[in-house]
Amino acid sequence: MEAEVVLASSPTDAGVSCWDLHTGAEHLRYKSCASSPHGLASVAGRFLASSQLRDRKSSSGSILYWSWNKPQVEVRSFPAEPIKALVSNSQGTYIAGGGVSGDIYFWEVATGKLLKKWHAHYRAVSCLVFNDDQSLLISGSEDGCVRVWSLFLIFDDARREEARHLFEYSFHEHSLRVTDVKTGYGGSNAIIVSASEDRTCKVWSLSRGKLLRNIVFPSIVDAISLDPGEHVFYAGSRDGKIYIAALNSPVTSNSNYGLHIIGSLSEHSKAVTCLASSADGFLLVSGSEDGMIRVWDTRTRNITRIFRHTKGTAQGPVNNVLVIRQPQNLNPRTSANSPVSPLRRHGLTLPPPLEKFANSPDENAHAKVFIGPQTTSNHLLDSSYISVQTMEAQIKELQQQGSSAAAEVDIERLKSEQLRSVQMIQQWKKMYENLHQFCVTELLDGTHTESANGPNL
Amino acid sequence: MLTERLLNFRVKIKRKIGRKLPPPKNSTNTEIKSKAIVLPEQSIVSEKAGLAVSRKGLTLKELLQQTNHHNAKVRKDALLGIKDVLVHHSVELKLHKLAVIEKLRERIGDDDKLVRETLYQLFKSVIFPGCGKDNQGPLVSLMMAYIFNAMTHLAIDVRLMAFKFFDLVVQFYPSAFSLYAEKILQNYEDILRKNQFLDDKSKLKSTLAGLIRCLSLLPCNESDNSADIPAHDILHAFEPEVAREPIGLIDIIKPLKDLLPILVGCFQDFMPLFHSSSQLDLQSYDCLQFILQSIDLIVRFLASGVCGSEPDSQILPPCQKPGMITYDQLISPMILKKLWDAFPLNLVRHLSGKGDDRIFMLNTVITKIFLQLSNWEHAPSALLEKFLEFIENSLATKVQSGKMFHEKHLLPLIPYIPKLTTQISGDWRSRILKAFTEVFKNSNPESSMKIACLSAVEEMLAPIKENIGLNFSVQQERSPLYLDANDLTLLDYQIAWIQYLPSLLILLDDKNPLCSKAVLRLQLRVAQAAPVNSPFSQEFDTMQYSFRGFFSQQIENAICYGPFIKLAADIQELAICCLYYFSFMDSLLLHSLVPCCLCKVLEPNMVARIIEVLQSAFRAGHIQVADYTSFHVTLLSRFQVYPEKIYPAVEYDGKSNWRTFKYVTSIVCSCLSQIGDDYLVFQMAEKIIVDHICGEIPMDNKCAFLRLLVTLDSKPTRLSDQSIVNISHVLPKYLIDVVSNVGEDDHESASVISVKRRRYYLLPSFYLFYGSKRLLNLVLNVMGSWISEVSSSLGSPHLTHPSSDRSTTSSKGTNLSLEERHKIQRAYDGLRALTNNEVVGHS
């Protein structure tokens, strides 16, 4: 099983704590983080980003980056307004943030450029999520609206001009603030589940754009987590219970809680504020108002582990939990003192801060240095530090030299192929011989026995 | 009876003088007379015994054969016989459905009128109702072949009858139309083109009625947005395969287009009537009405553009769907021009009011046709003005007369008002808006007009569907929001509408829940879509002052409940959701909410919901801390608990609302503890809570406050010295009350419950003792003094007369019976044991 880590943060300034999900070992604690709900994101496992709660007075927001091996904040960005929800796509190329005014900001991580900003909601954006193929962005807002944005449309100027609205879908059925949105698998045919303060969770179809199911809970649901098989989803509610709602079974009427709700996980805690599940779906991690992070086994419905987010007696509520694959360069606290190779330390440079304003589109695209996204963590950033000019020169070179070099490669390939075919022919021949031999003997034996049996008939 | 008949049969005796003598009286009559001898058992078809027969003894098979008889009367009788058989033996129909129809359909084109009529009645009353809905395909196709034949028959009557037959088929099997639409429409076109109807309007009327039925089956945009949630099927299951795709919509565009000028022609044929006669007779009025309705339906279909969408467009994501291409090109303006020329219809010679109403109805239909076209803004301004004037006038007369009649016919025009207001400008716009506003405000709150107006208002206030997202930060300044302060004319009206909503709610009371729901939904939409700091959000915030009356009002110390508590739960839910969106919630609004929460009628669940929403609003910074806490404290202090003893089996089916209060208490406790920093919250709330505990309130409420205090307090108590002293004065009495009142039920079975319940009451005070040693000491001292007092005075005879200078608590103590004293002793012992344990635990 792949090692997974649990990350947790809180609205009080208690940092981001980090544990191994399966062993329970605590890792480094990242300092000075007061995250907003849905405001903690791991950018493709490369580093950690979080939007910060700020005073009501301050006009600008704040987003902080931490690299895995240092507890201090490394990069600080200050967007134009406080950002509430923050999410990154799975490759870590983009970060999307939802502001208090209802705008959505869309940044490129590598350069920090603000690619787009659009007015998405009437009120603050409360949660953001990408669908599994990363082409749709789904946002929930305090005005009770869930909207689905296609990134293709947002970046296609021509089509945007003629479209009557920017969103793909706009779902208005929630009457109060949307607290969480999750998507299932299946690209643009997936289902999404949204939870709201109106005590309901609603299941929508992305392909048909309509409400599939409405589930009323006994209390406000603040967090949801989808089972990987999409048989059930878990809803963490304000009464401290985690309800299990069926997605793919016929209606069960014998439930105590209501239609579609088939059970609950509870440990008499305070309100559950956030949920996350491990990749295999067997472990469910819940963060609660009482500052505890509980790990549940969904098969037995028992608690397997409890982490405590805050130190000492102070009880800060937890408002974000994440479960991610263990980053390669994450050092457990025990080995924090062990010498780190200078190469590694050097390698971990984080991308530049996110920009506050969008540049005018006619700005020279070549002005920025591009840092190629790394596919493997072993292959560190410093090796791929190439300027655009160099890359273009290389491309040109390749294009010119391409003919002879490519021909050589081709010949090599053909030669080896021929060799292989010859071998194949030999093999076939041999097989044929064997088969022939076998048939002949069989035939001879057959006639033999037939002649022997003949007189009897 | 018998003798009577015999009398009738008596032979008349002819007497001719001189010819013959009358037969002698005693002679015997040897003649045998008989009309017919019926011997059923000797009939040739004696095997009919088990079969279904008609009244005349004929089987279905024979009757079917007779329908081909050359004599019309026999045919008719056969049909009647079939009816007879099928009515009495419904099994026959099920078994021989297709065979029967196959034979009978030949009579659709029968030359004899009576036969056709009889056949029609037979189909209408027996066969179609009996056939059911399954397997209609062969049935319809059997019928249609002959119906089409009859439609092209030479005799006009046969053709008309064929249309009636088709109408019948469509009535029972609506899908028949979409299958044969093209051909049918062509046939209608043919029959309407020949101008043979002016003499017989009833025939025209019946033909048109059939046409309208067909046309109303045409798909149109508005009908398919039904928001049904399939709650009961499995989410990821395959969808049931239903052939719902209407076939060949493209093919019927042409016949529809051809039909249009002919209908207009028919309409024109009636025009001379308006100039000549002084009275529009009912027949021609109905014909006109039907003609216009048909035109309306065709225009609606062609203008909606349903016909133009390619079948494969559903696969594309919605953004790539071809935008609404206007299909008005299909309708050439010249066709309808004659209609516009005739508008407004007026009788040359003016006459009675009844005729006026009819003309008015026709005019509204023409207006509706006009408004359905999407390119009418390109129409000549004179024409446009003609229509606008009519709309304004009719809206205005509606207000004056207030008749149900006008209301009913204006209704179809209302949905077009929003579109109208966005596309016209200047003077007319405000005039229309003004007239509309008048109608909206003055229409009867329980009428369907109100609901239509509400949906129009919703559309004009917040057309959320299309406006958001377009205002990119970089490229455009214009905001397509309708909640847009730039449009001043509209703004005034919009604000007027918003202001009107709360009073409408109160006006509606609980008489029309549907309308109340629509109003609240609209209100919620406004709240959600109002941009911060815009006139709308301000307007919405001021709305709360009138919104109060919806919940409750205090009129001269008496609480007057608003409609809120009487409405259904889903409407209440909507109303509560509106509360969240007030950017600042006034304390008076909270005051008006409290009586609702305390009201016995309100579901405990709804009380919890109110508190929950208020908590959300508080978190969002819409309520001040002081107001918020005082709301909760008032809730706890004013809640009236009815114990079982006092109202047995009256309230809540024998259950007291004690459980509700327990529930409310726990919610309030958790809400207040989540306000913020524990220490500050405690400091703020301490005084109020302690004051309430020391005040004169019932035991249950006292318990609630104690629980609240314990929830907010921490282990080494944060209570001030003064508070501890105050509490210590009241706590002993409270404890005694608990011990003496709770669990006094004599039933043994209830003992477990009562022990639990007693624990519920005692627990908070024990927690307090646990937190503060000093409080425990003080309380024990008071109790100890009582006991010593009582025991010392036991011997003295004048114990029962308490001296006047004693404190109330001790006087209470002296009044205790022996049993109660025992209880005090027990409680005291209990406390002792508890403290001892604690001491042991600590040491």
Automatic annotation (TrEMBL), chain A:
Which domain of life does the protein's organism represent?
A: Eukaryota
The coiled-coil regions, if any, are 381-408
Q: Where are the WD repeats?
A: 118-151, 171-214, 265-306
Task: Enumerate the PROSITE patterns for this protein.
Answer: WD_REPEATS_1, WD_REPEATS_2, WD_REPEATS_REGION
Which InterPro entries does this one have? WD40/YVTN_repeat-like_dom_sf, WD40_PAC1, WD40_repeat_CS, WD40_repeat_dom_sf, WD40_rpt, WDR18/Ipi3/RID3
Q: Does the keyword Coiled coil apply?
A: yes
Q: Do the record's keywords include Repeat?
A: yes
Q: Which UniProt keywords apply?
A: Coiled coil, Repeat, WD repeat
Which Gene3D superfamilies does UniProt cross-reference here? Answer: YVTN repeat-like/Quinoprotein amine dehydrogenase
**Protein name, per record:** Protein ROOT INITIATION DEFECTIVE 3
From TrEMBL, chain B:
Looking at the record, the residues that make up the TEX10-like TPR repeats domain are: 496-750
| Keyword list, A-Z | Nucleus
**Segments of this protein annotated with the region Disordered:** 794-818
Major subcellular site: nucleus
The cross-references to Pfam families, in alphabetical order and at most eight, read: Ipi1_N, TPR_TEX10
Which part of the chain is the Pre-rRNA-processing protein Ipi1 N-terminal domain?
138-203
Localisation: Nucleus, Nucleolus; Nucleus, Nucleoplasm
Polar residues: bias regions: 794-817
Superkingdom of source: Eukaryota
Q: Belongs to which family?
A: Belongs to the IPI1/TEX10 family.
Q: What name does the UniProt record give this protein? A: Pre-rRNA-processing protein Ipi1 N-terminal domain-containing protein
Q: To which species is this protein native? A: Rehmannia glutinosa
